[in-house]
Specification:
The protein is mostly beta strands. It has no helices and 8 strands.
């Protein structure tokens, strides 16, 4: 699977969002996405929707570890996803193959 992590900040509370697709480009709904703050340990979890997309709003500024997991697939962890104020575009984009 391919996953994309993007951070957006239009206020003092950034939004983390992106999409999860398989090797054929098909959306992977129901993937658990967990963001954990490196500084505070605060975590928030969401599931991807039908188009494979997710959004985690209201996160504090800082560095996060984002984990993607779904039964039947190996989990993927993306470290050092930086979220900052005043960045209305993708801050950090990572693509990883997510194998069975």
């Amino acid at each position: 699977m391919i996953l994309t992590v993007c951070g957006f900040a239009q206020s003092d509370r950034p939004l983390l969002g992106g999409s999860v697709t398989d090797a054929t480009g098909a959306a992977v709904a129901g993937t658990k996405v967990e963001a954990v703050s490196a500084g505070t340990g605060f975590d928030r979890q969401v599931l991807t929707g039908a188009p494979g997309t997710y959004q985690i709003p209201g996160l504090a500024i800082g560095s996060y570890t984002v984990t993607f997991s779904k039964p039947g697939f190996r989990s993927v962890e993306v470290k050092n996803v930086e979220l900052a104020v005043g960045q209305p575009r993708a801050r950090s984009t990572r693509r990883c193959k997510w194998a069975h």
